[in-house]
Amino acid sequence: xxxxKSGRLRFWVWAAVSGVVSAAVFLAAAxxxxxxxxxxxxxxxxxGSFVIDIVPxxxxxxxxxxxxxxxxxxxxxxxxLAVLIASAIAGVLEYVRPPLGVIALGxxxxxxxxxILTRAGAGPLAAIPPIFGALAGGTLLWxxxxxxxxxxxxxxxxxxxxxxxxxxxxxxxxxxxxxxxxVVVGVGARAxxxxxxxxxxxxxxxxxxxxxxxxxxVPAGAELDIPxxxxxxxxxxxxxxxxTALTVPSIDPNTWRLVIDGMVDTRVELSFDDLVxxxxxxYAITLTCVSNEVGGPLLGTAKWHGVPVRDVxxxxxxxxxxxxxxxxxxxxxxxxxxxxxxxxxxxxxxxxVAMNGEPLPLEHGFPVRMVVPGLYGYVxxxxxxxxxxxxxFDADEAYWTPRGYSAKAPIKFSSRLDTPRTGTPVTVxxxxxxxxxxxxxxxxxxxxxxIDDGDWQAATLSTPINDDTWVQWYLDWDATAGxxxxxxxxxxxxxxxxxxxxxxxxxDGSTGWQxxxxxxx
Length: 521
Ligand SMILES: Nc1nc2c(c(=O)[nH]1)N[C@H]1C(S)=C(S)[C@@H](COP(=O)(O)O)O[C@H]1N2
Ligand SMILES: [Mo]
Description:
single chain, Sulfite Oxidase, Chain A, domain 2, 21% strand, binds molybdenum atom, transmembrane, OxRdtase_Mopterin-bd_dom, Sulfite oxidase, OxRdtase_Mopterin-bd_sf
């Protein structure tokens, strides 16, 4: 004999299951429609991107600090858990107080429509997937819940055969079929949507970029041979990635256009061939993220092939009064770059099409991105570039400006110890202390090391390629047993010493000297 209470609990569990199955059908139906009519109409991605855009800054920093480059996967897992719990509740609601559960699904559909239509580049068709999904999920929940209530009613009447068992069988059969169909259709539709990305991967592989007219000269002694030091050029697959894109945009270079507009004499539209036809040159530039903590990993150096932004802007003719270029990505991200950082003759601000000898990897902005020496990425390094709007800081605002970061952000020069690392003990004896230091556009004059807060010792520098790239440094150390503090600081070619005082990454970049605890045994 089951007690009446556990009997009732059983139906609540099945009610929760009916909610989860209906939500799965909602999402799968929406993915199918997204595949057929409007890719940007996927509720999962739109709601995820919406959350990325609205979560408060401290939470974002926490996510990056905790999950690192897996922050987006963490977000999707969190979102999936929230959907699971909410849909189970909707199932129970529909069971005890119909039509509250169906109404909840309708609200979820309406919120998805809002999240989708407020995203950059979403047409009205993009509302179809969530509406279709909500209709499919809502209908299923209504049906399953009605079967469940009749089955429960029949079971309470203690009839073994008859209508109750018909409802029970229908409930299970329809739940199982709908659940399985949702998984197959949802996963299949997502896979097909992702296949677009792989077709762009194929286009990228087949792309034959002309050789650059000039190449970077790497002087002898530019790269130190010390195990554990950052290589002079960061391989593309090891290059840090930071962006707000939940899925990597897939842009076909054959249909890509760059629009130069705003305060210009003539609005200009360039195709990929137009841009490449202007002639490519090679530039070595170190990119740095404002989110890089002292001693952190969020920077890298590459050889970029590209065209000076100044030449591209000249085609449109910049009008007087402008002081900023708002660069826009296909996904709506924008960066505000001071006009003079792009037009000054001595600065190599470029539109890059290649990174370390190959077309830009998709995650790094294929087919065209900006690279500006001396400015943090969020105010300059727009990936998947589609527009350069010549404007003013008074008139326009970039993505991160209302989110707690400065509109202008030159890189604060800094230095890092790469080896040895805290937590990786070294053996007693001679050990090189080594790392990198960067002061883009100014150059590094000197790197100094202090062991156990003793005198500052000058490290040996690698021969710099130019002032826009980092230099490597090392200092031979006679490591004695025990624990030691190693502190590093740089001096730039303007004679300034790296700022000692600690500052957080917001609003315009961290400062401080890296002080590492090294164990020797
Ligand atoms: N479209 C787009 N471009 C972007 C970003 C972004 O979020 N979206 N992030 C910027 C930031 S914060 C940095 S630090 C650099 C990082 O470039 P990477 O991912 O190629 O290293 O890209 C910049 N360009
Ligand atoms: Mo960044």
